């Protein structure tokens, strides 16, 4: 089968290539799936460089979430439309997945949309609900709102009844988000501090930050007293620090978010989290925005689009 294989870590994708590899075979406790769509996530890009916390041994096939059709396996009929979490192996024509990581695809979602639910919305759910304790009517400031993880948080926060301020460096992309999702305000970065304080009447109670760097620094200046600042990632490239007198004076919490690790530390809650996001998807209360479906043969174009932040929402590879 064709698969995208990382054989050497490199900053320029030179160690990654589409290759012919042995196809997985049916096995007890596994489900063999023909991949119809595989979502590209920022950690996939980081793993090609060795810059992500998960560092699989070389060679490996990246790709952590897919949607496809069952070929064979425990508990699913051949041809069943399913979604799967894989951590690795998704950027291929076939994948073998633990049976307990497979569930039926919501009928109203396309394969591409379904592939884009798992990782992004799980991160948003753990951040906003489990750790951020989001409440209806609260002001939620969502940074990186045009990317996959940020846009999932916008979508989920609105489903929870929050008042949402979406931010991005691109006014054009923000306008597209505001036309698609019912955000309460859209603000470009940097220089958002005073605007956020004006909109909220003093500061945002909940801040979701997958960007880091200067965005984190400025966020500490427009968070409400007793607020929660959720550290989701560092796509800006700089890991910020905060003088401890600032959260002391303003009474806010800085909370680290690792959705996958949360589920590994608390398995029962992890299963509840997964059930919750797929229930919301099945009810039509959340729906990912797919920017483009890119043929697996053109994988490099998708990775470079993500590297340069040229998309809105999710990029999906199609074998």
Automatic annotation (TrEMBL):
It comes from the Bacteria. Gene3D superfamilies: Medium-chain alcohol dehydrogenases, catalytic domain, NAD(P)-binding Rossmann-like Domain. It holds the Pfam family ADH_N. GO terms for molecular function: oxidoreductase activity. Residues 11-317 form the Enoyl reductase (ER) domain. PANTHER family: QUINONE OXIDOREDUCTASE-LIKE PROTEIN 2, SHORT-CHAIN DEHYDROGENASE/REDUCTASE. This is NADPH:quinone oxidoreductase family protein.
């Amino acid at each position: 089968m064709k698969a995208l294989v990382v054989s050497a870590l490199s900053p320029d994708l030179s160690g990654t290539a589409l290759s012919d590899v042995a196809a997985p075979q049916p096995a007890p406790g596994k489900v063999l799936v023909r991949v119809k769509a595989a979502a590209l996530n920022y950690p996939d890009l980081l793993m090609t460089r060795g810059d992500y916390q998960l560092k699989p041994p070389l060679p490996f096939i990246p790709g952590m979430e897919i949607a496809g059709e069952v070929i064979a396996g425990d508990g699913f009929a051949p041809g069943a439309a399913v979604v799967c979490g894989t951590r690795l192996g998704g950027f291929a024509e076939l994948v073998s997945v633990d049976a307990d990581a497979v569930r039926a695809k919501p009928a109203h979602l396309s394969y591409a949309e379904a592939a884009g639910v798992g990782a992004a919305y799980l991160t948003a759910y753990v951040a906003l609900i489990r750790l951020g304790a989001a409440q209806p009517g609260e002001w939620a400031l969502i940074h990186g709102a045009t990317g996959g993880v940020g846009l999932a948080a916008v979508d989920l926060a609105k489903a929870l009844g929050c008042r949402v301020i979406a931010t991005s460096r691109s006014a054009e992309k923000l306008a597209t988000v505001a036309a698609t999702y019912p955000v309460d305000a859209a603000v470009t970065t940097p220089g958002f501090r005073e605007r956020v304080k004006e909109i909220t009447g003093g500061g945002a109670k909940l801040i979701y930050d997958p960007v880091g760097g200067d965005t984190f620094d400025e966020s500490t200046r427009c968070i409400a007293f007793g607020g929660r600042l959720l550290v989701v990632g560092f796509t800006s490239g700089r890991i910020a620090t905060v003088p401890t007198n600032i959260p002391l004076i303003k009474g806010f919490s800085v909370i680290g978010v690792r959705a996958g690790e949360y589920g590994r530390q608390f398995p029962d809650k992890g299963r509840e989290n997964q059930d919750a996001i797929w229930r919301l998807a099945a009810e039509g209360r959340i729906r990912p925005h797919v920017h483009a479906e890119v043929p697996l043969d053109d994988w490099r174009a998708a990775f470079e689009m993500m590297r340069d932040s040229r998309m809105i929402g999710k990029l999906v590879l199609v074998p």
